[in-house]
Design a protein that fits this description.
Distance between the termini: 27 Å
CATH architecture: 4-Layer Sandwich
Radius of gyration: 16 Å
Order of helices and strands: EEHHEEEEHEHEE
Structural class: alpha+beta
Helix content: 10-25%
Number of domains: 1
CATH topology: S-adenosylmethionine decarboxylase
Number of helices: 4
């Protein structure tokens, strides 16, 4: 199937409160995750909520990476979308899960624009359009260190 990219939705459970509430640590972690995935970090922004919680978004040349944290329950929602076939969002997710010391995680890997028809892509150079060929899979309750 043709796709414009892969969108990974990662849920992290059992993360230490101090990591989930540290905006500097979270921003560095997202930037390093993007680099580990072969993506190009352009710029990042974060917000530290009161009394707790952080939202951070990183703009990538290939799309974006983001996290929203709920320290009070040890949870983080991570979103990594990359287009093209060079960056690997799954690697970014694995890096974030390790750095956030998640006790468990759930990862959904979703191809974007997977329903493009042959007539919609007729004459389109997949490489120039940053498209890729891939399969869709959903992984549930994978151990954090896998």
């Amino acid at each position: 199937m043709a796709s414009v990219g892969v969108h990974c939705l990662l849920e992290l459970y059992g993360c230490p409160v101090e990591l989930l509430d540290d905006p500097g640590f979270i921003r560095r972690t997202l930037r390093e995750a993007a680099e580990h995935a072969g993506a190009t970090w352009i710029e990042g922004i974060h917000h530290h909520f009161s009394p707790a919680g952080v939202t951070c978004v990183g703009l990538l040349a290939e799309s974006h990476i983001s996290i929203h944290t709920w320290p009070e329950v040890g949870y983080a929602a991570v979103d990594v979308f990359t287009c093209g076939d060079t960056a690997m969002p799954e690697k970014a997710c694995a890096f974030v899960a390790r750095e956030m010391r998640a006790q468990r995680k759930t990862l959904a890997r979703i191809p974007r624009a997977a329903e493009l028809t042959e007539s919609e892509t007729l004459g389109v150079d997949p490489k120039a359009a940053h498209m890729r060929t891939l399969n869709c899979e959903i992984i549930h309750h994978e151990p954090a260190d896998a």
